[in-house]
User: Which sequence fits this backbone?
């Protein structure tokens, strides 16, 4: 690299090569001049053409120098223009980079905001899912607990008794039934409804043939289905017979009893596929009820209890009606007397009103009376009399 007029040029640059050629040419000319001077003594004729050529060469060298200066000025102008263009390019690039950076910041800010919003919504959904999962786990635990309860015969019986107690307590007054009532034969009934005679107190006993029903539901083959049906028939017949023998006592209870099934599914299965068991219950005077039909039956019993209590209170009601009738008669008599008094008072008020009206008229005449216009004949002398005269 070489420096010319404050500008840097490479060795293979055309301008540098041209300048180098000019320098070599000048050097050659100088050498030739020296040789020519040495040979000047040989021949004057040869010196003149040489001098002429030297002058021409000097002019050319001067022209080359001027051209080199012009070239240097052009290179300087080109360099300045290139520097200005580079500055403008850098400025433009900085502006574009600033614009792009601003857009990127805005896009990143919007993306961050949308991402934060999406994360918030996702967190809410995850919280909802966690809550639902907790409810599912709780429900699963409740189902497992219910299965544990129903898998044991004693706990299953307690489950049916609790459900029966809940239904009866909602349908009947508390003094119209007794839970776990003991009869004269020593047998304890789940519930005894105190109905009047007839029909008399009636027993409701809870039964739950769950094993036979589940075997019927799990049956895959016809043989398993038949065996499960036999098991269900045997179980229900045994419950019907036990209720009929234990809880239908002549002279103490009604001529019938209720068998409460705490499952609508078992009740529907009996009525849909085992109607003969229902008829056998009718024959044994044991009526099978589910939670829904038990509530309907208890509402009917409630109407019977209400009617019986109203009949018990019929005497008191008749006595009260007689007293009410006497009170009405007294009120009528007093109203008649009050009407008479009101009539007399009205007549007195009318008399007082008439007398007041007459007195007002006479007072008006006295107020307008002219004594001068009264003739002697019209004048009347009121004699004075002694008191008592």
Assistant:
């Amino acid at each position: 690299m070489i420096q010319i007029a404050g500008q840097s040029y490479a060795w293979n640059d055309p301008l540098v090569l041209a300048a180098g050629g000019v320098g070599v040419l000048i050097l050659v000319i100088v050498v030739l001049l020296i040789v020519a001077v040495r040979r000047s003594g040989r021949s004057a004729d040869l010196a003149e053409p040489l001098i002429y050529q030297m002058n021409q060469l000097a002019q050319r060298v001067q022209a080359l120098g001027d051209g080199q200066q012009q070239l240097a000025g052009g290179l300087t102008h080109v360099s300045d223009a290139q520097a200005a263009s580079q500055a403008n390019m850098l400025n433009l690039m900085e502006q574009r980079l600033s614009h792009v950076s601003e857009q990127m910041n805005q896009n990143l800010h919007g993306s961050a905001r949308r991402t934060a919003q999406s994360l918030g919504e996702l967190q809410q959904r995850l919280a909802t899912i966690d809550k639902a999962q907790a409810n599912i786990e709780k429900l699963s635990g409740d189902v497992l607990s219910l299965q544990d309860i129903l898998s044991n015969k004693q706990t299953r019986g307690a489950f049916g008794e609790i459900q029966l107690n809940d239904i009866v307590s909602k349908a009947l007054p508390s003094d119209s039934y007794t839970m776990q009532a003991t009869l004269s034969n020593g047998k304890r009934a789940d519930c005894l409804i105190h109905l009047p005679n007839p029909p008399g107190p009636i027993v409701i006993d809870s039964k739950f043939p769950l094993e036979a029903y589940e075997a019927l539901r799990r049956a895959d083959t016809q043989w398993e289905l038949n065996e499960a049906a036999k098991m269900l028939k045997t179980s229900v017949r045994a419950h019907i017979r036990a209720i009929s023998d234990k809880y239908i006592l002549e002279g103490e209870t009604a001529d019938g009893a209720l068998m409460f099934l705490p499952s609508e599914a078992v009740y529907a299965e009996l009525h849909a596929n085992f109607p003969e068991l229902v008829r056998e219950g009718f024959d044994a005077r044991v009526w099978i009820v589910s939670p829904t039909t038990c509530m309907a039956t208890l509402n009917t019993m409630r109407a019977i209890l209400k009617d019986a209590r109203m009949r018990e209170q019929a005497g008191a009601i008749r006595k009260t009606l007689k007293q009410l009738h006497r009170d009405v008669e007294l009120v009528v008599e007093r109203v008649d007397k009050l009407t008479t008094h009101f009539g007399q008072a009205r007549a007195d008020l009318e008399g007082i009103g008439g007398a007041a009206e007459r007195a007002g008229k006479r007072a008006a005449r006295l107020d307008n009376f002219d004594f001068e216009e009264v003739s002697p004949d019209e004048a009347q002398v009121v004699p004075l009399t002694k008191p008592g005269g």
